[in-house]
Backbone:
């Protein structure tokens, strides 16, 4: 039996290093994980709050909404209403994880396994992240965004910059390409384009315009036509990415304002895969830390006391309160994700008759890591649940499905965890995790660039669920500000 | 390879910029909330960090979202079934009641009507005192002000050794050495080793001897050259230059006169103290060089310190003029008008010994007002009295007497306060930034 890597509760850098090596060995050799190089940073609680309020990124442009977020988080934290996350991990290459300095040594080990290997593997291998995010470039891009927005504030005034960012943030969820892959210009092209844009701006700064009475704007720049970016010279309609459309075709925006929209929608796109894989991402990280910590214990590298401390925090992370519990706030993605993955392992190792019927492809195959690696790489929450949620887990969670008609006084129980209900409920749960269906489906239906410049926006309702009225008006006002002319939003039932 | 980076010592407050932007954004709401929360707090708590609850108007972040309550139908899955079977009906929670149904509440509830966070004392006072200033502040006696500051003024060739600009000096020296071709130590060393090698071998040939002679000469020349081309020459030396600049400041003194006699009840005293507390904070914050003189009076006036002024108790009869006389006495002693801007704020319940009011007005008209930049009189009333004296012209003896003074002097202001809520508007009105100075 090996000697334990640490016995003290307090961590130090030497012990962290020993633990990291042991975890790395297990992760790479035994679990065959494939990760970006790790960069692990120890930060204080205040810095953790800072990181919270910049969407978890190490650097971010300035905006009041982040200040608001910070004020809220600080209030909750100081009031003792919420603890801080033990870690934050960033989808970048190298993969940066933050450890909170207050964590005990066991917690640091858990967090390293969770973030630096679990999340890291998922970021590197999941198809959504591979296709839609650029882990190599994100930090450079954020640095550029921060500089650019600061320069805009200096040049055009904080209020003007703030106005554009406010409106862009309001449309952030409608600022992603859901199905079509956005073009990915090379770095040189980006730089070149940026330079050209700046030059254009310099050129179009005409002293004559300054003599006009206030309120008269210089003529708007023509939409930058870029062969690589333009999907044809004609507008493509309908367009689901509102920010993209406005950036390209708004008759009133100036070049720097278009660049701000581009920054916001780039970020929205970067975060979009995370929204689609919450259950899987957390499940993967939780499953990996659970497996690794137990293997460390099996090899005598951590003490029994450490294992108990780890299990204590692990169980609270994967705790799922019932729907009528005061603590209930939806399905816990950690619980569901971890539950499903642990269940896959069980099905591979000790399948029941039911499992063999439901999962003939891998039940009893024994190689659970292969099944999991495949799932982590090729699925998102919706498809993962549709494919892998087993009847046993539905029974364990005692899931039931309700039908809600807005005009009925009651919910109706449609299915429970029994033979008639399994498939139906599984599909319903999968749909619940389909971000594309959970977000309002809003598209640009038409724009009249020559005449009255009216912009037609359409909400394709799903099962007759309309938009929330007051916020609808507020967001439309933002869209109108960016478009510069009237915006008409209609809601129609999606056929 | 080590994978760990210790960031704990990195500068904090990375999101300070965001916070400032947020405060600026929510300015109107915050101002409202700060005033409200100041109203409710005790005297001693003014100027502390405090929780502020603001409405989210102005800092709302709307997004498109679906509203399943307004129409349509959908399915959702929940955990924890115990007794339901298909076909059962469950009553929907009413709006606002759905706290236990976390997901529902999060999905449907507005959830963001109010927003609570903690502001520091600095931030609160900044907001509270914005747009306020001492009226008619005249920049008097610039010559007398002792405050001066040192400002950088480029580079000079003379100065004290502590001000040497090393970078410039070394650069000049280096340039001069290059131009004058001062032999480097390496050059000399090369000559010496060469010479040594030759001498060691022995001067056996004519050529060698000649070379030795030549080397010796060269070496001597080089050494001499090194001697007269100094490494650092006095002409290289540069100093950082500073010039002295007077800071234009104006000296000001604020006299705070408060009635603490028996007729002032606890409530009145509390109101007066709150007013002075604000005044005190305002002056300390905005004007570094304002002297504040605290005078309290009953039938007798005395100068006290801050602590005593705000926190100690005293009682007795009322003769307001004693305070004015005290003020004049102090002014003559310490604050000669030619050099000082003089301000005064007086708080009283308006009652004084009969006949004293006239005396007060005399002192004011003849002696104090010609000296003062601004004189504010705050009368503290009962709420009932406030209704009786709704008309500005009616009031107690002192009030009526002061009204006559106010009509004579444009820089004499009279205001009434009956409840804590009045303090802030009155304060703001008294110290509003005036357009023309």
Residues:
């Amino acid at each position: 039996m090996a000697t334990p890597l640490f016995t003290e509760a307090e961590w130090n850098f030497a012990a962290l290093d020993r633990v990291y090596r042991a975890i790395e060995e297990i992760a790479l050799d035994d679990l065959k994980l494939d990760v970006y190089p790790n960069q692990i940073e120890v930060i204080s609680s205040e810095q953790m709050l800072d990181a919270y309020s910049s969407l978890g990124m190490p650097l971010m442009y300035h905006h009041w909404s982040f200040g608001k977020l910070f004020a809220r988080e600080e209030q909750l934290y100081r009031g003792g209403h919420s603890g801080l996350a033990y870690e934050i991990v960033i989808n970048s290459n190298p993969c940066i994880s933050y450890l909170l300095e207050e964590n005990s040594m066991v917690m640091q080990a858990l967090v390293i396994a969770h973030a630096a290997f679990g999340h890291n593997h998922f970021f590197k291998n999941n198809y959504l992240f591979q296709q839609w995010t650029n882990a190599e470039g994100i930090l450079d891009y954020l640095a550029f965004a921060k500089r650019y927005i600061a320069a805009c504030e200096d040049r055009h005034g904080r209020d003007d910059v703030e106005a554009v960012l406010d409106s862009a943030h309001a449309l952030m969820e409608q600022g992603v390409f859901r199905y079509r892959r956005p073009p990915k210009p090379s770095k040189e092209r980006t730089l070149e384009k940026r330079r050209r844009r700046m030059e254009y701006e310099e050129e179009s700064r005409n002293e004559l315009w300054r003599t006009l009475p206030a309120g008269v704007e210089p003529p708007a720049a023509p939409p930058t036509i870029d062969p690589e970016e333009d999907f044809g010279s004609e507008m493509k309609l309908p367009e689901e990415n509102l920010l993209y459309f406005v950036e390209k075709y708004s008759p009133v925006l100036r070049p720097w304002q278009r660049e701000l929209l581009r920054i916001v929608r780039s970020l929205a796109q970067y975060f979009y895969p995370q929204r689609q894989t919450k259950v899987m991402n957390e499940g993967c990280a939780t499953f990996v830390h659970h497996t690794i910590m137990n293997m460390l214990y099996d090899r005598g590298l951590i003490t029994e006391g450490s294992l108990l401390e780890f299990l204590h925090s692990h169980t609270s992370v994967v705790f799922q309160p019932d729907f009528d519990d005061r603590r209930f706030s939806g399905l816990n993605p950690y619980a569901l994700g971890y539950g499903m993955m642990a269940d896959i392992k069980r099905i591979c190792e000790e399948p029941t008759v039911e499992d063999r019927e439901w999962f003939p492809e891998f039940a009893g195959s024994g190689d659970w890591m292969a099944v999991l690696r495949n799932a982590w790489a090729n699925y998102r929450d919706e498809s993962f649940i549709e494919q892998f949620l087993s009847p046993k887990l539905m029974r364990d969670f005692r899931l039931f499905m309700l039908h809600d008609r807005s005009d009925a006084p009651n919910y109706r129980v449609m299915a429970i965890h029994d033979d008639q209900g399994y498939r139906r409920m599984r599909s319903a749960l999968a749909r619940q995790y389909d971000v594309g269906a959970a977000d309002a489906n809003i598209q640009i239906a038409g724009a009249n660039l020559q005449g009255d410049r009216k912009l037609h926006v359409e909400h394709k309702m799903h099962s007759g669920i309309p938009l929330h009225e007051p916020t609808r008006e507020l967001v439309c006002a933002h869209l109108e500000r960016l478009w510069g002319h009237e915006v008409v939003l209609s809601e129609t039932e999606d056929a | 390879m080590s994978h760990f980076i210790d960031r704990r010592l990195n500068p904090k407050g990375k999101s300070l910029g965001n916070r400032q932007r947020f405060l600026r954004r929510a300015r109107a709401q915050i101002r409202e909330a700060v005033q409200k929360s100041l109203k409710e707090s005790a005297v001693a708590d003014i100027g502390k960090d405090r929780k502020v609850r603001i409405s989210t108007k102005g800092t709302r972040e709307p997004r498109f979202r679906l509203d399943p309550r307004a129409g349509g139908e959908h399915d959702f899955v929940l955990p924890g079934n115990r007794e339901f079977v298909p076909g059962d009906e469950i009553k929907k929670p009413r709006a606002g009641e759905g706290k236990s149904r976390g997901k529902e509440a999060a999905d449907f509830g507005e959830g963001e009507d109010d927003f609570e966070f903690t502001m520091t004392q600095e931030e609160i006072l900044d907001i509270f005192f914005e747009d306020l200033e001492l009226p008619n502040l005249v920049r008097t006696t610039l010559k007398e002000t002792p405050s001066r500051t040192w400002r950088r003024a480029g580079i000079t060739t003379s100065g004290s050794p502590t001000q040497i600009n090393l970078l410039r000096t070394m650069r000049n020296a280096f340039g001069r050495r290059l131009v004058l071709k001062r032999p480097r130590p390496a050059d000399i060393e090369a000559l010496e080793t060469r010479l040594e090698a030759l001498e060691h071998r022995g001067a056996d040939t004519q050529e060698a001897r000649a070379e030795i002679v030549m080397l010796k000469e060269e070496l001597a020349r080089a050494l001499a050259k090194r001697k007269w081309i100094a490494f650092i020459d006095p002409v290289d030396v540069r100093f950082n230059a500073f010039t002295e600049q007077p800071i234009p400041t104006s000296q000001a003194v604020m006299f705070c006169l408060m009635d603490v006699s028996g007729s002032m009840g606890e409530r009145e005293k509390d109101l007066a103290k709150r007013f002075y507390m604000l005044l005190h904070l305002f002056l300390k914050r905005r004007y570094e060089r304002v002297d504040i003189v605290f005078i309290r009076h009953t039938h007798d006036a005395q100068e006290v310190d801050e602590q005593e002024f705000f926190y100690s108790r005293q009682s007795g009869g009322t003769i307001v003029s004693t305070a004015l006389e005290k003020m004049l006495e102090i002014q003559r002693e310490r604050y000669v008008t030619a050099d000082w801007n003089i301000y005064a704020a007086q708080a009283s319940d308006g009652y004084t010994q009969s006949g004293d009011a006239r005396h007060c007005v005399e002192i004011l008209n003849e002696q104090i007002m010609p000296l003062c930049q601004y004189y504010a009189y705050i009368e503290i009333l009962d709420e009932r009295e406030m209704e009786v004296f709704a008309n500005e012209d009616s009031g107690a003896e002192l009030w009526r007497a002061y009204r006559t003074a106010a009509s004579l002097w444009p820089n004499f202001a009279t205001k009434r306060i009956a409840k804590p809520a009045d303090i802030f508007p009155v304060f703001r009105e008294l110290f509003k930034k005036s357009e023309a100075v």
